[in-house]
Amino acid sequence: MARIIPIKDLKDTAAISQMCNESTEPVYITKNGYGDMVIMSMKVYEEKMRLLDMYEKLAEAENEIRDGKTMDARQTLKELRTKHGL
Prior knowledge:
There is one protein chain. The chain is an alpha+beta fold. Helices cover 57% and strands 17% of the residues. It has helices spanning 13-22, 42-66, 70-83; strands at 3-6, 27-31, 34-39. Strands 1-2-3 form a three-stranded mixed beta sheet, with no helix packed on it. Helix 2 (42-66) runs antiparallel to helix 3 (70-83). It is elongated. It comes from Candidatus Merdivicinus excrementipullorum. InterPro entries: YefM-like_sf. This is Type II toxin-antitoxin system Phd/YefM family antitoxin.
Protein backbone atom coordinates (compact mmCIF):
# COMPACT_ATOMS: atom_id res chain seq x y z
CA MET A 1 0.00 0.00 0.00
CA ALA A 2 1.31 3.44 -0.90
CA ARG A 3 2.59 5.58 1.95
CA ILE A 4 1.89 9.28 1.76
CA ILE A 5 3.41 11.70 4.24
CA PRO A 6 3.58 15.49 4.54
CA ILE A 7 6.87 17.22 3.81
CA LYS A 8 7.18 18.36 7.44
CA ASP A 9 7.71 14.72 8.43
CA LEU A 10 11.02 14.66 6.54
CA LYS A 11 12.65 16.16 9.64
CA ASP A 12 12.81 12.68 11.20
CA THR A 13 15.32 11.24 8.73
CA ALA A 14 15.87 8.02 10.66
CA ALA A 15 12.15 7.21 10.58
CA ILE A 16 11.92 8.06 6.87
CA SER A 17 14.92 5.86 6.11
CA GLN A 18 13.39 2.99 8.03
CA MET A 19 10.03 3.49 6.29
CA CYS A 20 11.69 3.39 2.86
CA ASN A 21 13.80 0.34 3.66
CA GLU A 22 10.83 -1.62 5.02
CA SER A 23 8.75 -1.05 1.90
CA THR A 24 9.01 -2.25 -1.68
CA GLU A 25 7.03 0.80 -2.78
CA PRO A 26 8.06 4.46 -2.94
CA VAL A 27 6.96 6.93 -0.27
CA TYR A 28 5.02 9.91 -1.61
CA ILE A 29 5.69 13.33 -0.07
CA THR A 30 3.03 16.03 -0.13
CA LYS A 31 3.40 19.78 0.24
CA ASN A 32 0.31 21.80 1.12
CA GLY A 33 -1.80 18.73 0.36
CA TYR A 34 -0.41 18.18 -3.14
CA GLY A 35 2.07 15.63 -4.42
CA ASP A 36 5.60 17.04 -4.41
CA MET A 37 8.24 14.27 -4.26
CA VAL A 38 8.77 10.53 -4.18
CA ILE A 39 11.49 8.75 -2.18
CA MET A 40 12.49 5.11 -2.03
CA SER A 41 15.23 2.84 -0.79
CA MET A 42 18.31 2.27 -2.94
CA LYS A 43 17.32 -1.39 -3.28
CA VAL A 44 13.90 -0.50 -4.72
CA TYR A 45 15.43 2.19 -6.95
CA GLU A 46 18.03 -0.19 -8.37
CA GLU A 47 15.35 -2.82 -9.04
CA LYS A 48 13.17 -0.24 -10.84
CA MET A 49 16.16 0.86 -12.94
CA ARG A 50 17.02 -2.77 -13.77
CA LEU A 51 13.45 -3.42 -14.89
CA LEU A 52 13.37 -0.21 -16.92
CA ASP A 53 16.59 -1.22 -18.68
CA MET A 54 15.16 -4.66 -19.41
CA TYR A 55 11.89 -3.21 -20.78
CA GLU A 56 13.81 -0.81 -23.03
CA LYS A 57 15.92 -3.64 -24.42
CA LEU A 58 12.87 -5.82 -24.95
CA ALA A 59 11.19 -2.98 -26.85
CA GLU A 60 14.31 -2.67 -29.02
CA ALA A 61 14.24 -6.41 -29.67
CA GLU A 62 10.54 -6.31 -30.58
CA ASN A 63 11.20 -3.44 -33.01
CA GLU A 64 14.03 -5.39 -34.60
CA ILE A 65 11.77 -8.43 -35.00
CA ARG A 66 9.05 -6.27 -36.50
CA ASP A 67 11.57 -4.74 -38.92
CA GLY A 68 12.83 -8.18 -39.99
CA LYS A 69 16.15 -8.03 -38.16
CA THR A 70 15.57 -11.30 -36.35
CA MET A 71 19.22 -12.27 -35.95
CA ASP A 72 19.95 -9.08 -34.02
CA ALA A 73 16.78 -9.41 -31.97
CA ARG A 74 17.55 -13.00 -31.05
CA GLN A 75 21.03 -12.00 -29.94
CA THR A 76 19.61 -9.12 -27.89
CA LEU A 77 17.11 -11.44 -26.21
CA LYS A 78 19.86 -13.98 -25.53
CA GLU A 79 22.01 -11.26 -23.93
CA LEU A 80 19.07 -10.09 -21.82
CA ARG A 81 18.33 -13.59 -20.61
CA THR A 82 21.97 -14.13 -19.73
CA LYS A 83 22.34 -10.76 -18.01
CA HIS A 84 19.16 -11.10 -15.95
CA GLY A 85 19.31 -14.82 -15.31
CA LEU A 86 16.16 -15.62 -17.29
